[in-house]
Amino acid sequence: MMMENQENKKQHKGGRNPKKDPSIHRYVFRLTDQENAKFLSLFETSGADNKAHFITSVLFEKQIKTVKLDMAGMDYYMRLTTLYGQFRAVGVNYNQVVKILYRNFSEKKAAAYLFKLEKQTIQLAQLCRDIAQLTAEFELKHLKKEEK
After folding, report:
1. Segment 75-96, tens digit of pLDDT
2. Which of 15, 34, 103, 109 is the most exposed place for a label (fewest CB within 10 A)?
3. 45, 66 in Cβ contact below 8 A?
4. Could you write out the DSSP letters of every residue in 65-85?
């Protein structure tokens, strides 16, 4: 009975399955404050999951991915996208206003209101040109630097 119980324990061993090629060799090295700062900077830009994988990829000359996020560029893009959505909404509203003016007012009164609306539209078009110019300047100054 006792022998049967011991065999049973061997069969139902818990835990993880052992790795086929475990990493058992360990190396320790020390860095100065400057070297450590540079190491951490390289590690963060690499996007590696952990430092051990990063170090082995550097030692064995595997390709290291570096990811740089330009938060200013992303923020500008998000705001520009929102502004574009608002411009589309203005265009839809513009069409609705013109239809309502011709439907509810006489031609003379509708023409007077449309004249006022036309002045506002000219200002809106100028604003759109200014935004396009600012976007071109932003791309020239900030987004093209990465290609150099």
Report:
1. 877 887 788 778 778 878 888 8
2. 15
3. yes
4. ------HHHHHHHHHHHHHHH
